[in-house]
Amino acid sequence: MEIKILTNFFRRIINNIFNNKKEIKLGFYGPPNAGKTSLVNRICKDFTGEELGTVSKIPHETRKVQFKEKVEIDYKGKKMTFKMIDTPGIATKIDYEEFLKYKMSKKDAKERAKEATQGVIESIKWLDDMDIVVVVLDSTENPYNQVNITIIGNLVARKIPVLVVANKIDIKKADIKKIEAAFPEYEVVGISAKFGNNLEEFYESLFKLSKKSKK
Amino acid sequence: MEKRGNKKNIGNIKGFAIQFMPYSEIKNLDSTSRIKKILGIVLGNNILILQGRLLPQEETRLIEDTMAMIDYTTGFKGIELAVISGDEEETFFSKITKNIANVLIGGDLTSITIIGPATIVKEIKKDPKKIELFLNR
Predict the structure, then answer these.
(1) Is B118 in CB contact (< 8 Å) with chain A?
(2) Of A176, A207, B101, B109, which residue is least crowded by CB atoms under 10 Å?
(3) Helical (H) or strand (E) element with A197
């Protein structure tokens, strides 16, 4: 009896060591300009010292899926290793003329639009590869946008655990309550990726979410 | 589908129609045919009001195909999409009952899907009990 208890004890310890070393594929999804890359950069900078991608006020700055492997997040003494996957924003329309407002040449705007359409397709294709997903929403925008609902609906259909992040809480017109009301079945964490506000709560929720991962 | 480089042109928009489609029209179609039918209507400068809603995987497929169409259809900028569902404040029990009913009927008939070309529909605002369509002209 005592030998069995001891064997189980050591097995649990060994399992925990190996489980913690597994890399969890963490995807960042959302509409364009919600702050996905800003959040990924913030995390990567904090734990690896390097950022992942460029950010811009012009929508569709991220037009290719970009990832960083073996990012070890150390939170309150607990460690977890992630493959951070930053995806292009998902949209139902892309008009090159929108980019002209940012003083871009017609040729560049057309090229950006073309790359952006391909980025949306690539984002959707990657959905199947995720272990857990953080859906990043702009808390100053209306959350009832169909793109948000479609992304979350697809994650639910694929049984991928979801955490909703309400970004840009540093802006006066941010409304986290509206996001909570739109997605009452999910935990919503308000943050500012730009200024690093409330990231402690985000990491706490991320670790909780990781435990739901099938991996 | 036409080859890239041989761009399709949807021409100048002089008007649009609102087309209602009962779910029965797509019920027996596979996902590819459903999306093709929907995009065909939208590309004809129609705002489609569809009884019911697509599956989540079909909604993403619709987005993917829309993106591919933007690339090779001159003047096409994408779509505006919204689903109005009657289940916003339903209880857990009524949701289960409704899901069973949906399986028996073969689709979610309590929802309505609105899809319009982005050249005509500037924005569909859902809030969530009110829906507003803002047109480009």
Answers:
(1) yes
(2) B101
(3) none
